[in-house]
Every structure is written in C-alpha cells, then in structure tokens.
Design goal:
By secondary structure, this protein is of the alpha/beta class. It has helices at 11-22, 55-62, 82-102, 135-149, 180-193, 203-217, and strands at 2-6, 26-31, 46-49, 67-70, 106-110, 117-119, 122-123, 154-158, 164-165, 178-179, 199-201. Helix 1 packs across helix 5 (180-193). The longest helix is centred in the middle third of the chain and has 21 residues, at 82-102. The model is unreliable at 174-179, 193-204, 206-211 and 213-218 (pLDDT under 50).
C-alpha cells in the first residue's frame, strides 16, 4: 500500500510513520520542516516538504497514493492558539479539494477528543469541566469533522482519548489511556480496513481494531 502522511514529524505522525514502514508499506512523509523528521536508519521513506492548507500542493503530493493520513493539528502546548486552531479547519477544506483533484478517495484524519459524546447528544467539549486552554483546538477539530461529514471522500475521523501521550510500542492496549505508539498500530489497520461508510470513530473502535490485529498475529 502506498500512503501519504501529513504531520509525519508530530507525536502521533512520527509513530504512525514508523509503523507503516515496519509493515512494509510505501510511505511519503509530508512535513513542514525536514530537520525535525527522523526515522530509524533501517527504514526508508520519501520525505518531502508540503503545505497542507494549499490544495494544489496537496494534490501534487498525494497523487498516485492509495490513501492519505493527516495528523496535523496543534499540540497540547499550542492548543490555545486560535491561529493554529484555524489551520485545522483550513486543512480540512484543503485536503478535501486536494484529494479530489488528485483522484484519491481514502482519507484518515486524527482529530481530537472534544467531538466524542460522553452521553447521547452531549460532546466532551460541551461539558462544564472541559479545560478552556484546549477549547480553541478542540472546537476547530469539531468544525473540521462537520466539514468532512459533507464531503464525498471515503473518510475516517479518529478521535483519540483526552489523555493521549507518547509511549512504547506494546502490541496491547488499555481502555483508559492509549499511547501514541499504540494508536499508530491501530491507525494503519484503520487505513487498510475502513469501510466506505464515513464515520467519527471513538477510542473504543481504535482499540477494537488493535485487538483484532493482535488476535490475527497470534
């Protein structure tokens, strides 16, 4: 499988890149800064500089790929920045236009926990205790999800848990805290298995995907 990955030098993106390559897939790692991207010397990726909010550039970079993954978004220390938050919305529109121009149908996006429902009809971001410092980025991810829901691509939106942090690759999962490495293991499976039904996938679905993969490997 030939995959294009935006945000390959981020916390989730770098781990997904390693997982993709270890599984023998072909990867185009798209970053803003080449100096920040690194993978083990035993793995090889095509690393390019790209601008996710430029749909023409997106189309040029993803043409000929089987699927596109985006992990682009503000990190925890940038989540309160409204300008970076707006880039999430710009990226959603640009990805849809760029993939359409390139003739690529499959898109997988790592969003935020704010869009997950804690009870029927109530999103996590709408609860009283949601931290204000994360609200700009979370609102942007929620708006991006609405944009994806109106498009014609074969898309999947993954909402990781609220507590999402770096960790070692274990091949196992926990249903309270999923590490960045564990998400990357499940992420590749979502790209391979996602149905044509566009959906907002909660953490439990990612965990189930990882569990299925572990069962098949045993």
């Amino acid at each position: 499988m030939k995959l294009a990955l935006f945000g390959a030098n981020g916390m989730a993106g770098s781990r997904i890149a390693n997982e993709v390559l270890k599984r023998g897939h072909e990867l185009t790692a798209i970053v803003r800064d080449l100096s920040r991207f690194s993978i083990p010397t035993t793995l090889a990726a095509n690393v390019v500089v790209g601008n996710i909010i430029d749909p023409v550039n997106v189309a040029e970079l993803v043409k000929g790929h089987d699927a596109v993954i985006s992990t682009v978004g503000p990190g925890a220390d940038e989540a309160s920045d409204p300008i970076l938050a707006q880039d999430v919305i710009k990226a959603a529109n640009s990805l849809i236009e760029g993939l359409t121009l390139a003739g690529v149908r499959r898109l997988v996006v790592v969003g935020g926990a704010g869009s997950l429902e804690v009870v029927n009809g109530v999103r996590f971001i709408d609860t009283p205790d949601f931290p204000d410092i994360y609200r700009p980025a979370s609102l942007a991810h929620c708006e991006a999800l609405k944009i994806y829901q109106t498009c014609d691509l074969d898309w999947t939106f993954i909402s990781p848990a609220a507590f999402f942090e770096p960790g070692e690759r274990t091949g196992k999962y926990r249903n309270r805290v999923v590490t960045g490495r564990s998400l990357s293991e499940g992420k590749v499976e979502v790209v391979k298995r996602a149905t044509k039904e566009s959906q907002d996938i909660p953490l439990e679905a990612v965990v189930a995907t990882i569990k299925e993969w572990i069962a098949e490997e045993i």
